[in-house]
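User: My advisor asked me to double-check a structure prediction for Fanconi anemia group C protein homolog before group meeting. I don't want to rely on an old file, so could you generate it fresh from this sequence?
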Amino acid sequence: MQKLSVWDQASTLETQQDTCLHLPRFQEFLRQVYEVLKEMDSNTIIERFPTIGQLLAKTCWNPFILAFDESQKILIWCLCCLINKEPQNSEESKLNSWTRGLLSHILSAFRFDTKEVGLFTQGLGFAPADYCPGLLKNMVLSLVSELRENHLNGFNTQRRMVPEKIRFLSRVCIPLVTLPDIEPLVEALLIYHGHEPQEVLWPEFFDAVNEAFLLKKISLPISAVVCLWLRHLPSLEKATLHLFDKLISSQRNFLRRIECFLKDSLLPEAACHPAIFRIVDEMFRYALLETDGAPEVLAAIQVFTRCFVEALEKKNKQLKFTFKTYFPYASPSLVMMLLQHPKEIPQELWHQPLKHISEMLREMVEDQTHGSYGGPFECWFLFVHFGGWADIAAEQLVMSEAEPPEALLWLLAFSYSPRDRSLQRAQTMTEVKAVLGHLKKLFRSPTLSAKDLQAAAAESQARDPRPPLCQKLIRRLILNFLLWAPGGHVIAREVITLMAPTDELTHEMTGLLDQTLYRWDHLCMEAPKSRKLARELLEELCLAGTAC
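Assistant: Sure, here is a fresh prediction for Fanconi anemia group C protein homolog from the sequence you gave:
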């Protein structure tokens, strides 16, 4: 009540600033008031909250509150709670009449209290209801035009809009950003670039626009969104964290759904600007470190990179920026190799880029002279952006009848366990090579059983049990074997049941199958039987596993 009394009708600059500062909190307060009022009848409300009518009445006459987001709607809900449907006495009837008067005031888009305005609109041939929206539209268009001219005039000070006016406009727009009629002005303010040494728009304006955009209360073109995130980095960080909240949830998000979230966020498209890409990529890096390489984060990075590359190809037939600006600490030749789309390379030649990628990575990881490209983690972080190459390597190793190439073995061992030293990685390669040898024998076997496959995967070349990441890599190879071996389809369900006895392993196998199907779709792989089996296994795991 004290705050509303101070705000009065937002008539001074100070009260306007204070009102704008507290609008989101006041709207939340109104919402909480409504949650309480809706559970009571009118008489109980007046008895428990004698000053509620006075508070709501003061709110009704504050134009800033009425214009902000959903405040007007919530205020109407609160007032409706005061109306007694069956008034029993004159006091209750009086309260109803008074409440309806407030509702009438709120629901009237514009009120005219002077005869002059009425005569003026009649002279123009407009009814008040038509005239005022048209006036607002023309005012907005005029301001937008002035901002654009200001941008084009540059240093022509005689025709420029002064920075104070632009700052004032951004402040006025804070409570109005969700109004459709104001959107052109919001967009023009975001795109406006003056020659002032400091930002002229209010930080609260950026916050309000970003919040409304994230909650889908306004729609903005990509050019305006890019300007918003470049001019106000907290908004970009908040947008990325908002995306993380959607992607990393208690329930599994399949890759197609992750792709929809990413494209809907506009972050991959906005990341065509290197500054935005670098910040989003850095936040992914921290998420990866904080979660110790969680599969959900890895999947999000890979899908984000795929969407980003697609947006880059559509936007820049001739690139404005070199890839060095996006990956400044990576080897340019390695980046170009990873950026190759496997779909554009004949399948029988996939081993060639895989070999080159492996050799370059190995040289950087194991040869200290390449310190300028970062350590093992930096190399691995770059590689996981294009994790589809590791999946192709796993398939190639299972399907090939030749001796497993050391380059592909090293690539898989590194992708699954980048922290290992050379000796540990060599042991993993030996284990994987032995399993592949067993799988090749079984691949040609006329009679294939689940127990044979389980035994082949369980045998270890060392006396010590395999590390968890090595076990995970071998499960990946077993799954590929089931999808591609002639007899694998028959025993697939039994083997999957044996491999995924816990919710955690079920979750892992679900992710592998989803990842495989997503990659096949993007590669347009023609493998109807394998695709059908993968989809069926995925559906069955989702039904069976409480973790999915």
